[in-house]
Amino acid sequence: MPLRDAVHLAFTEHSPGEIQIYPGPIARDVVLRRQTTDVQCLEKVFIGSEYHSPFKLSPQVIVDAGANVGMATIVLLDSTPALTLLPLSRRPRFLRCWSETVAS
């Protein structure tokens, strides 16, 4: 089953407020919250590959302005494990989710 369909199926009316998934090639779990933009973010990052670069990059530090729940962060960490990431968000609950995603 495609990832997009599996996520939408997991969010049936009887599902809890959050689900935890393992989205494929990234060796980390991701928490998705119900009635948020998390699913759209997952689609952009993992299905649409928006953070895939055709160039060989080796940044040492990235400031993740608008860090959301950390999906782009785990893609960046997967490609550059020694990377230091500084998340910025005006919403404290996003930083809590970001910490949980990155720690998994």
Q: Mind explaining what this structure looks like?
A:
With 104 residues, this protein is of the alpha+beta class. It has a single domain, classed as Rossmann fold, CATH 3.40.50. It has four helices and four strands; from the N terminus they run H-E-E-H-E-H-E-H. The strands form two sheets. It has a two-stranded antiparallel ribbon. A two-stranded parallel sheet has the order 3-4. The radius of gyration is 14 Å and the shape is globular. The model has no long low-confidence stretch (mean pLDDT 78).
Work out the helix count: 4
The gross shape turns out to be globular
Radius of gyration: 14 Å
**Span from first to last CA?**
24 Å
Helix content: 25-40%
The fraction of residues in strands falls at: 15-25%
What's the CATH H-level superfamily name?
Answer: Vaccinia Virus protein VP39
> Unreliable segments (pLDDT under 50, ≥5 consecutive)?
none
Q: What is the CATH architecture descriptor?
A: 3-Layer(aba) Sandwich
**Average pLDDT value?**
78
Query: Main β-sheet: number of strands, strand sense, barrel status?
Result: 2 strands, antiparallel
Number of structurally distinct domains: 1
Strand order of the largest sheet: 1-2
CATH topology: Rossmann fold
Could you give the topology of this structure?
Layout: H1 3-10, E1 18-21, E2 30-33, H2 38-47, E3 61-65, H3 71-79, E4 84-88, H4 92-103
Keywords:
Rossmann fold, globular, 104 residues, two-stranded parallel ribbon, two-stranded antiparallel ribbon, alpha+beta
Short description:
This protein has 104 residues and is an alpha+beta fold. It is built from 4 helices and 4 strands.
